[in-house]
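Record type: ASSEMBLY
Status: queued
Input:
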Amino acid sequence: MTPFKLPDRYAQTEECYEGGQGIVWIYEDTDLARRVAVKFMRPTEEAEQLLKEVASLRAIRSKHVAQIYDLQFQKKTKRPALIQEYVPGPDLSVIAEGGVSTEVALLILYQVASGISDIHAAGKIHRDIKPANIKRDSEGIFKLLDFGLTCDASPQPSTRSARGTDAFRAPEMYRPPPVKLSPAIDTYAFGVTAWALLSNGTIPDELQKIPPQLPSPSFAAIAPDLGAEILQLLDATLSAIPQRRPAMAAVKRAIGNHLLHGRHRALVSDTGGTKHTLLSKPGQAVKLTAGDRYIQIAYDGLSFRVQDSSDGVFINNVLCRVGVTMPESCVITIGTHSNRVFYLFDVSHPEVVL
Amino acid sequence: MQQVYKATDLSFERLVALKVPKNESAEKRFARSAQMSARVNHPNVAKTLDYFEEAGRAYLIEELIDGLDLSTAFKERFSYLDPHLAAHLTHYLAKGVAASHHADVCHRDLKPSNIMVSNDPNLSEVKITDFGVAKLAEEEIAQNIHDEASITASQTLVGALPYMAPEVIEDHKKASKPADVWALGAMLHFFITGEPPYGVGLAAVPKILIASPPIPPSFFTNAKQFRPLTEELWAIVTRCLSKAPNSRPTANELIEMCSVLCYSSAPRKSGVIEGFRYNSGSWGTITGDDGVAVFFHADSGYSKVRLRRGQRVDFASFPGMPRPRAFPVLPVN
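Status: finished
Output:
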């Protein structure tokens, strides 16, 4: 039985989740013929806590956070119940145990990183990132749940009781209280979550110790094919020093780039519009010439770089240097004065759309 | 059909869209419509937040998008969209429509006025509204479609007609998933050319019924700096506008086609064309609203007419010397 009486339109189901704070019961909203998740605090818990959670949810704009529908108050006690979007799942701990390919894992981690990055952009710290708090909806969108511990990132909060979930708790949480909290604790928890997802739900022994014994083994041990940039970033999420952990927006960007690997396209055309060259395969290169001057541009799967060039070559009127990344859109000028030849260079790529 | 109000949800102090049925016949179907739209859950579909009846009247509460509908955006700001922006928009719309088809909900009334976009030059947020509620429109359309006087009188019909599939014009009961795909194709045509494929008003009806493949306007085919994207977009338009409903791609196939499109989603800003160098007519400068002067080449413009001094434009800008370079350049009002 729930300690809460809702309007008749909501019919209670069997599905229920016990949170660290509060309980979530799944109801059928008979008016709209859909399930909703209803969160309320246990009678022994502070009812105010739920209103704090509502305030956090209101501040965060993200497609990776469940929508809030309604707030109901108990007539006599004035205790609140929060009615939210029902996310059917499964949750990420189940998905991780089932095993996923690296490609699928990256698409999921991209979404989780986007969600955490949105939370941080709203000036909040989630404080309980873990696979069990991340669920897939019916359209394959991953959503972060349980904002019961969420707090403002500034002024820097501290806590006497370091809450969260053991293996996902950053090492600084084990220092003597008061423990200072920063968004980097979410980044650490993201790192452990990423490890679990890439290794069938397992977590290295070092990270399961209390406190964790860092440095953690490198992600190269479980996903060597991720590429140097992502491996370095993921390894950094588990750094013992909070300041060394990357910003979640940077993690999101790097994973997004990786998802687009080999899917960029550059169109090179002369200004007469007669000749077009398409660069789209990793390893492919194009050499543009005018007299004995030249520039050679190659695609490495992530960006287009100048591989070789003579003197007297300009990119958007900047003297070309070997190794530079081509801007997304530019004019290449080969030669000077009256002998100049122009080429237009435009990069495009698919958008990561969820 | 229905009236829409901007309202404040006092529980969460947020703005929402409050919808009420316009008349009794709409009232009957309103609850069912609300349930249909509540079944669709996707970032590119406006969320159904609540539905309730009070004192015999029904109310539907929907997520309110901070922005404007595409029909208004075209009246106020755009004449057409460059292929990059159109590809972005179509990709998101295909995702939203596919999500609804997965839940077995058809929109049946997809048209620019039912698409909400954020008010920025990148149209970064896109949400389809009025899912399910469209069933109501159908009734009004069925009543009026074969009568010229009532077509002009029915705002619903005037807006819907240019995006209506031939089988729907013949028999409105045939409105199903392929009709949504047709509407997406017709909208993409509208985005990149500024006009729906078979025109507007009653004159469009016979043309839609024949459904001969549309011919791209010359400014579109001539925009060489936008190839091969233009060619790929046109292929999508043509496939979606197949006369036979089963020859059209499914929404899932449409996503596949969109997900391989290469386009630039670099952040855009607005500005004014300051002038051309040496009266060349081919390259000049744009002064951004932020005061930064940017170099551009006429070929980077996506425009039906020659770009002129004083024209307002949206553009993305990339590093260059002495000025950054703009691409693409889209004339706006």
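Annotation: The first helix of chain A runs from residue 48 to 59.
Annotation: Chain A has a mean pLDDT of 91.
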